[in-house]
Design a protein that fits this description.
181 residues, mainly alpha, Arc Repressor Mutant, subunit A, 2 domains, two-stranded antiparallel ribbon, 8 helices
Length: 181
Amino acid sequence: MDDDIPLLNTPNLVALILRDAGTGGASADGCADRLARLFGAEPPLDRAALVAHCATHLRWLCEARLVQPGGGRWTLTGRGREALAAHPDGMDLAELDAYPEFAAWLEAQDAAERPRGGPPARANACDEGYVARHEGAAFTGNPYDPGTADHQLWEKGWCEALDAEEGPGRSALTGRRRDAI
């Protein structure tokens, strides 16, 4: 996604999914339908891409133990209710990475893709995001395909650079503190 599409950024999509999961259950199809309605006549992505994007975020929330599967839908866990109450405007990858299960899942992906005895492959994507922020790249300038571990880690590095520059808790897109919005 080369363009700035606020509805599809991680914090907004996480907020949408957590709210849906708390009011009857969320699904990738339902989330894509809701996004299509929010976009109006012409969503920026086709339906399959919207569903895939939503499914990726559902997977992340499941790995963080914020949602759980049940009856074809995803519902909030106790941890998910706490997360939604603490972050009603959503969470970015750095905040999701604070959940040990999510961090371990990312590490397991990294280990599975790392050449035997080689350095962590993911460190480069995170470092690239950090450097990109310092060089003035936009949050939406992520060069990796959405839904990949490299994409997530590039965002994490970019957000870490933002936190280092302006203090933690700032929105990657608006620059305003999320808790002050």
